[in-house]
Amino acid sequence: MDFPDEVYDVPDLFYARKLTNGPTKPFAVYCSEGDLIERLFPDQQTRNNYGITFALSPTSSNFSILVDNISRTVSFERYNSLVVPHIGSRLPFSMRANDHSALRKVVECAANFDRHLKRSGEDMRNIWMELREVEFEPGSSDAAHQTPRNMGRNLFENDIALAPVDRLFSLAIFNQTSLALYPHVFYLDPSELSISAWYTPAIGGRPGKSGLVDPPMLPKSVLTLGYGDTATEPWIFGLRPGENVDVGFFKVFFTTSPSDFSSLLQDSPFTAVSRAGQPNKPSSPMAEFWGTKIATVIHKKL
Prior knowledge:
Elements: E1 27-31, H1 34-40, H2 44-50, E2 52-54, E3 63-68, E4 73-78, H3 84-87, E5 90-96, H4 100-118, E6 122-123, E7 127-135, E8 150-151, E9 160-164, E10 168-175, E11 182-189, E12 194-199, E13 221-225, E14 235-237, E15 245-255, E16 277-279, E17 290-300
Parallel strand pairs: 1-2, 1-3, 6-17, 9-17
Antiparallel strand pairs: 3-4, 4-5, 7-8, 7-10, 10-13, 10-14, 11-12, 11-15, 14-16, 15-17
């Protein structure tokens, strides 16, 4: 292999920009109107940039764009096996077929969402999570810094929980490994294709220096979100008007050194503010070791 003669000093902390989605499996998109998807993604370079490929049928795709030829509106379906058993394949949004910019944004968000939901690192089998309903003293305005007066039972069974809407919840993460870890906790909403953060560790350091911030999770310890030392607000689940059930995922990325996961954040291409799950108050990891845990939350009216 030939190497360039020029040698570069690589800093401890640096920025890299992803230009294409690389060797990962492309996100297969089907469109019931072939001319439309050709106009949205007219050449191979554009498709590579979005990390997509065209599918010939819904059954061979990850995502479908379905055009109503009479109303000229578009609906969407996603075929993720983690989602479909709970709420089906149809997304609860539609848009005009001639809004090409918005349609491209939906496909981009769907591809990113699918990629982050499925990506995994080391198997973190000695880490687990507990989701509990919490109650605070009446009139409490700063739950993040209080201890709950009541805590419910752990709702996770085999990493799946059934959670009532419009209640407050805390999440406890148990680290029974010998590693000091930096956890990054995200909520992924497959109906709105949004990714929001509940907790991310601080990143410190000066320009040109790595951020040597103490890890929030020491070996054999517990990190609690929703109250206590992390100063995070409790989580609340909601439903869109007319819905009785929805599903979402808490996904935690663990690293052994400070890392920036802000590139995972994603606003919904359909709505300005997610209503399905949010705190009560309104790139690849650059680490020596990283792993993931994921848990499913079905939220419904009880």
